[in-house]
Design goal:
mainly alpha; single chain; elongated; 0% strand
Length: 143
């Protein structure tokens, strides 16, 4: 059992570290973009892995030997990717990434600005109350 775990442990560590998203603890835009690209690669990997399992269990003919090439041809058929419309679809992918990034970043920044404004407004209202109270205390001390 130890021999099996000794072989399996690095595989499990690799899968956990590189193939499961853990979020980002970095704050730069470059790190965010890098993490987004890694997440896309992870999603694509799991799409292919899940598709190959489905191909192996339900699609291939009984008794036929499993072939990685046949599985990938099944998942990514050349008939689909050779159409002219696919070129347009693939050109739209980076455009949609840019739009989604800028729109979500704008929403995040916009909501942060509104929250900051509300907080500062509330703080200034509290400060005005405090100044009024202090001023009334000073007036009462003078009398």
């Amino acid at each position: 059992m130890d021999a099996i775990w000794a072989w399996l442990s690095p595989v499990v560590d690799f899968i956990w570290k590189y193939l499961f998203p853990h979020g980002s603890d970095r704050s730069s835009v470059g790190a965010f973009v890098g993490d987004a690209l890694v997440a896309m690669a992870q999603n694509y990997f799991w799409f292919l892995a899940g598709g190959l399992v489905i191909f192996a269990l339900w699609v291939r003919k009984p008794g036929e030997r499993f072939s990685l090439v046949k599985g990938l041809k099944y998942l990514l058929p050349i008939e689909v990717y050779s159409k002219p419309s696919v070129k347009i679809d693939l050109m739209m992918v980076p455009i949609s990434w840019v739009f989604s990034f800028t729109l979500f970043a704008g929403l995040a920044v916009g909501s942060s600005v509104v929250q900051l404004d509300r907080t500062l407004t509330a703080m200034s209202a509290e400060r005005r109350k405090l100044v009024t109270i202090m001023a009334s205390d000073q007036r009462s001390e003078c009398l």
